[in-house]
Amino acid sequence: MKIVRTKEAIPMELFLLADPEVDNILGYLHNALVYVAKVKEEVVGGYILQATGHDLYELKNIAVATAVQNKGLGTRLLNHVIEVVKELDGKYLEVGTGTFGYQLSFYQRAGFRVDRVDKDFFLLNYNEAIFENGIQHKDMLRLLLKL
């Protein structure tokens, strides 16, 4: 598997796995770096990274194709993000996620810590309710990793 920066058409179906709103994804592509993970020539994962301050970067989206989930690819992608941010002289990496669920523990295992809460984020920014394990996501946790 190789992870490469792409300027081609982004794999929207892949990124919709992590963010179900096309308009949201299109909105944060401005000035973003897009990387994809390929096995042979098939895209199996990717992420969208955006500079949001002098030494602050935000991981806007990270996704792994359903067929290859739970095989460590997400962790490899996240480690790649961290290395890219370090190469760009970033000191902090931020990510927003729900207040519960797999994604929260995924980021916490990598060393991210809760920085703040965006109350009602999912209620205000999504046309349809987002549920996980029968619970509706309402607030977004903003997590921060000091590099």
Keywords:
single chain, 147 residues, two-stranded antiparallel ribbon
Task: Please summarize what this structure is.
This protein has helices at residues 12-15, 22-27, 73-87, 102-109, 121-125; strands at 2-5, 32-39, 42-51, 56-64, 92-98, 113-118, 131-132, 135-136, 140-146.
Characterization of this structure:
It is built from five helices and nine strands; from the N terminus they run βααβββαβαβαβββ. The protein is of the alpha+beta class. The strands form two sheets. The chain has a seven-stranded mixed sheet with strand order 1-2-3-4-5-9-6, with helices on one face. Strands 7-8 form a two-stranded antiparallel ribbon. α3 (73-87) links the parallel β4 and β5. It is globular and about 40 Å long. The two termini are 25 Å apart. The mean pLDDT is 94.
Break the fold down into its secondary structure elements and pairings:
Blueprint: E1 2-5, H1 12-15, H2 22-27, E2 32-39, E3 42-51, E4 56-64, H3 73-87, E5 92-98, H4 102-109, E6 113-118, H5 121-125, E7 131-132, E8 135-136, E9 140-146
Parallel strand pairs: 4-5
Antiparallel strand pairs: 1-2, 2-3, 3-4, 5-9, 6-9, 7-8
